[in-house]
Amino acid sequence: MAIDNLQLLEHLRTPALIVEKRQVSFANSAAKSLLGAHVVGQDVRIAIRDPGALAVVLGENGGTAQVRGLSVGGSVWEVDCRVLGDEERLVTLNDQSIQVSVARAHADFVANASHELRTPLAAILGYVETLQNPKAGGDPETRERFLTTIQHEAKRMQALVSDLMSLSRIEASKHEIPSDEVDMVALIRETVGELKDGADISFEADCEQARVAGDRAQMAQVIRNLVENALKYGKPGGPVHVTLEASETGWVLIAVRDEGEGIAPEHLPRLTERFYRADAGRSRAAGGTGLGLSIVKHIVERHRGRFDITSRQGEGATASIMLPPRKG
């Protein structure tokens, strides 16, 4: 290969090799970083030991193959080979780890969503079939108990479908930065007022107004999800403390704190994962879908903010969001 072309390959961020007569005659910096500088001069069968990749590199027509590993454990690489001449090949290595990870996450999400929907659906169908039996369905007490369970499971499915649709809408608009003006003090007061209904929820703000650029409906959903979460997993009926602080730099800090049992440290990093539950049985009994905190995270990220959860067992948990100052 001409020297000018080799210099061009050297500037590529994609690992690239020139293989001549089964030996690596050239490797750019990216390839040396991945496979080691010693790869130049090596037999390609030693440099790349994957049988599928070698079949492509040494084959008459070149092609592509997927390789897991190489020198980076767990990474997935696409090996692409182009025939330059009878004894010369251009081999490029494209990292496919992100695409594979996204595809796996999507498949896991669909599987989890299907499972979460199938569980209440199976319960509903089972109780309906029992009620259709004259012996069981004819007993008023049994009938009432079964209908209550059916209603509970149907509402659980309804909540899950609603959250799935919310998550889909949020992800579809995640690259669109909200531009409307929202007064978070007024919004929190309104949302807390709607949720009180006998619950002990307090709200304190260090200012009369805290205006941010945001989507009002989505920010209301964030506050609602966090307060409802605190009511579900804190002490029954509260107390739940909501605070708002406006910093001199324009950032707005909102915190929702409960006085429940708290969350074990090993669960904290995974709480915003879809369908992850620190206590699955308690979550389902409380009507949780496993998507509430994931929705909060996605909305806050769309608003270019920060979301965090801290907790000490026996002392409750605090969910905090920081929203950036409104520009202009």
Identify the notable features of this structure and list them briefly:
328 residues, alpha+beta, Beta-Lactamase, Helix Hairpins, Heat Shock Protein 90, 3 domains, 44% helix, extended
Class from secondary-structure proportions:
alpha+beta
CATH class of the largest domain: Alpha Beta
Distance between the termini: 56 Å
| Biggest sheet record | 5 strands, antiparallel
Strand order of the largest sheet: 2-1-5-4-3
Q: Classify the fold: give the CATH topology of the largest domain.
A: Heat Shock Protein 90
What is the CATH architecture assignment of the largest domain?
2-Layer Sandwich
What secondary-structure arrangement, pairings included, does this model have?
Elements: H1 3-10, E1 16-20, E2 23-27, H2 29-35, H3 44-47, H4 51-57, E3 63-68, E4 76-83, E5 88-95, H5 97-131, H6 134-137, H7 140-172, E6 181-183, H8 184-195, E7 201-205, E8 211-213, H9 216-233, E9 240-246, E10 252-258, H10 280-285, H11 292-302, E11 306-311, E12 317-323
Parallel strand pairs: 7-9
Antiparallel strand pairs: 1-2, 1-5, 3-4, 4-5, 6-8, 9-10, 10-12, 11-12
Helix pairs in contact: 5-7, 7-11, 8-9, 9-11
Task: Characterise the protein shown here.
- It is a single chain.
- This protein has 328 residues and is an alpha+beta fold.
- The chain has three domains: 3-95, PAS domain (Beta-Lactamase), CATH 3.30.450; 99-172, Signal transduction histidine kinase, dimerisation/phosphotransfer (DHp) domain (Helix Hairpins); 181-323, Histidine kinase-like ATPase, C-terminal domain (Heat Shock Protein 90).
- Helices cover 44% and strands 21% of the residues.
- The protein has eleven helices and twelve strands.
- The protein has helices at residues 3-10, 29-35, 44-47, 51-57, 97-131, 134-137, 140-172, 184-195, 216-233, 280-285, 292-302, and strands at residues 16-20, 23-27, 63-68, 76-83, 88-95, 181-183, 201-205, 211-213, 240-246, 252-258, 306-311, 317-323.
- The strands form three sheets. Strands 2-1-5-4-3 form a five-stranded antiparallel β-sheet, sandwiched between helices. It has a five-stranded mixed β-sheet with strand order 7-9-10-12-11, covered by helices on one side. The protein has a two-stranded antiparallel sheet with strand order 6-8.
- α7 (140-172) runs parallel beside α11 and α9 (216-233) packs antiparallel against α11.
- The longest helix has 35 residues, at 97-131.
